[in-house]
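Usage

Read records sequentially. Each one opens with the input sequence:
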Amino acid sequence: MDGASGTTREGAIPSGVVTFLFTDIEGSTRWWVADPDGMAESLRRHDEVVRREIERHAGFVFATGGDGFCAAFGRPSEALSAAEAVQSRLDAVDWPGPELRVRIGVHLGEADERGGDYFGTPVITAARVASAGHGGQVLVTETVRSSAGVDAIDLGPHVLRDVPEPVHVWQLGDGEFPPLRTSTARSNVPSPPTRLLGRDDDVRAVRLMLAEHRLVTLVAIGGTGKTRLAIAVAEAELAHWRDGVWFVDLAGAAGGADVLHAVAKAIGFEAPSEDRGHAIPGYLAARQSLLVLDNCEHVLDACADLAASVLIAGGRSKVLATSRVWLDIDGERVYHVAPLGTDGPRSPAAKLFADRAVAVAPGFALDDGNTADVSELCRRLDGVPLAIELAASRAGVMTPAQLLGGLDDRFRTLSGGRWRRRQGTLEATVRWSYDQLEADEQRVFRALGVLAGSFDIGAIAAVCELSVPDATDVVEVLYARSLVVSSRESRSRFRLLETLKAYAERQLVEAGEVEVVRERHCMHFTGAARADTLLEAWRLERCIGLLPDVANLLLAADWLETHRRWDDLAEHLFGVAFVSGDEAASMLERLARCRRHLVRQEAIDAVDHAAIFCTMALADWMAYIDATARLRTSPNRPTAAFGYLYLALVTARHAPGEAHSMIDRFADLAGDDAAGDNRDHATFWRSMVEAMSGDLVAAARLATEVIDRPVGRTSLALNARMIAAVAAWTNDEPGPLVALADELETAHRSTGRLDPYYQSVVGFARALVALKSDELDVAEAVVRDQACDAASGRVTLVDGDALGLLAELARRSGDVDRARELIMKTGPGRSPATVGFMRWVAGQLGLGGQLQEAYCRNMFDLAWMVDRPRTALRRELERRSWCSD
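and closes with the structure output:
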């Protein structure tokens, strides 16, 4: 009889007797290789149908593995109805790509539910029943058939992998299918004691590579989970290899003879030891087998020779290898095994921590009190599975917060305990790789410990006192050994995982090289950031080039401040301030500390200039005015001139006439220079005044006068380009906005990073262009992306810009009341161009005067300027049910 159906949190079926339904797509790997685009479209249709029918029949989807679904039901009858509905609906699908055929297995048994996941033999049995079937077939076990009382075709008892006793299997429906896949595959693949989490995409990617190539090597630093991934791939491939899948553990091998002996033993091949090197490749060539060589790094040459011989011998057998260094032979394809994702409390890394923590602390669960700490802990551990498992093994005596606090001495925190000693400490894993390096390579690796974030070859050469070609050679070795990884932003930049960085820093201290290497680091990055003139500091190409190195630029500032090199620090901060908007508040504090120690007027002026950029980024106009006052009182006339010019910006919106007078004062103090730069500056700032006061036509006319002049190649002139482009947009000419966005993205692509500020410029431009489209749904999608990006908080002062876009979207949709409400919630705007746009929208809605009056009344109220639009944006996104994640 069916038991009563009950649910726990989020619809999960509670612990007890649970019916499990597993699905799998037949031949999916072949379709991914033959038609990846079509397969992706068909898979989306498949996922919609299967999930809908499972949930329509009271099922709870608790996992997806590869191309299939894992679901729990309270009653077997519900599961069988869902299975029949899935097959029926899939038969009726008009497939956009390959026609997909799904096999389904259903089993009933006692299982434990924890946090929406399930544990116990019934889960494994259901999965194995599904994998034994064929596309279009529904298989059920005896317990399901008898409990539900359904008619079925008796297929008899079958031995299923990892299931201790034979299972009696029945088929629903009258279809004719080949014999079940229960006795053809042979294997010695070990059954791991724990389940694999967060690697579905990796398993699929590696299987696709194996479908096309005969040798695939999984490469990563120790502890990343290469072996566990290889086992998962081997398990998934079992049914596809007529002569078996053979796993060879080489951890104990000491040389070539040991490798050949281990392989011969695994595949069951008898041959004299002196003949194995020639006989094994020939034996495999006559068969269809998958050979898994695990832990090749310490017997690399022997593994490479064997794998090369297998490829040369031909045939259909293939090799899957795991190693910290690739084999480096013809025909090899390398798959770099990345750490687990660490983005948020539901990330694979966080799930792994929770899963392993339960083993030592049965009551452990992710909740509001610990998810932030677990997420940060996993991020600090770089998502490396071994490090996460070592941390989780202490969950019985340490909270996630305590573990996080202990990461400053991570090698001690993650050591000790019998399980941790048996697994091998994290430090030992890193030490093994370090010890394999030559002395010069070790010197370079430990020097990299001073670098923050990502870095390029030039920085490596500088801190190690190497030529760029020599540095490139060493980095190639470190990359091959997974001791450095490519940066997420660009393959021309590299980074150290935090655990490797901690080890490198320790080795640097023990070698007594810290001070000299840090000084080289400082000299390199202060040289890169140096700007002798304001025009040079504003140069667009320079700013874009510095963006990927902001972390290292700030680290260089730390070194200068620690060594009390105040004049050098002042010059460095002048060169850095314009590209460090995210650090504006802490930068202001550093500038104040530095200024107290300065004597030279040029250094004082440099610090005061830097303060202008920081207060502007924070929209703290009172502090901004104070900073302009310090510049205006400088005995250096050009510096004082710029003090008046900057003051014009904060005056422009409420008193444009006064702002123009201040620009006149700038022109008087600065005088004429041979290049005409001062005249261009004055014209340029007048353009911004006109934009902020609402006259986009006049602003665009002035902007175009200087865009092609030398000043037009500065970051400041980006605002002029935007002003002219927005003005054209108001006249139904979006072309200049498209060109500007394309140009910025191209420039940033060369550095591998699109800075949040410039990204906001690109996003704003794309959104405006979309709003001119006749397709309102397209415009809504682009505005949604920009609004959600603004709400993420990565860039300051873009909340008001996003509200302006939402107001224009509402206006074009005919919701004038909503548009009026939103435009009145906007704040200062990120740039003169966006201020001009918002004033234009307000004018279209008949609110130009009201918006201007509200701004002038509240411009010195930070809560009104910053907090109010931020709150309004989040509420509007909630109302629209956007950005729920």
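Summary fields computed downstream for this record:
- The first helix runs from residue 28 to 34.
- The chain has a mean pLDDT of 86.
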